[in-house]
Amino acid sequence: MKTGQYGWGWHSENKSTFTDKPILLDLGLVKFNLSKNMYSSPLDFASDVRLVFENAMLYNPKTDEVHGMAHQLLFYFEMVFRPIQAKLPTNQRVNEFSTVYEFD
User: For residues 90 and 99, what is the distance between their CA atoms, to the nearest angstrom?
Assistant: First the structure.
């Protein structure tokens, strides 16, 4: 994700895509946390992935390509994660598509 034509938008050098949380969250950190088994559930993992894309949309104007890419990638992530979430016990399911952004 960090390489290629659009890779610049998803790592910590692009400070405009992050909130003021104490730890900057990017897809590299999500990958690291996943590789170290730091997520207690698939929902915790999904929450961090969503936060990366939601922050990118929140802190970049709709006219910015980062916003557009984040919108597309979040939509794709939700589509891919939906079957995983469906297999979780009912009490562990959450609503997808948070309210940070609007669909046009």
Answer: 21
What is the C-alpha to C-alpha distance for residues 53 and 37, in angstroms, rounded to an integer? 21
Judge if pTM exceeds 0.85.
Answer: no
- CB burial of residue 80 (10 Å; 0-12, 13-18, 19+): exposed
- For residues 13, 73, 6, 102, the Cα torsion angle rounded to the nearest 10 degrees is -80
Pair of tokens at residue 31 = 């990958």
The pLDDT tens digits for 44-99 are 999 999 999 999 999 999 999 999 999 999 999 999 999 999 998 876 655 555 44
Helix, strand and coil content of the chain, in percent to the nearest 5, comes to 55, 0, 45
Quickly list DSSP for 10-56. GSTT-GGG--S-SS---HHHHHHHHHTT--SSHHHHHHHHHHHHHHH
| Four-CA torsion 64, 65, 68, 74, nearest 10 degrees | -120
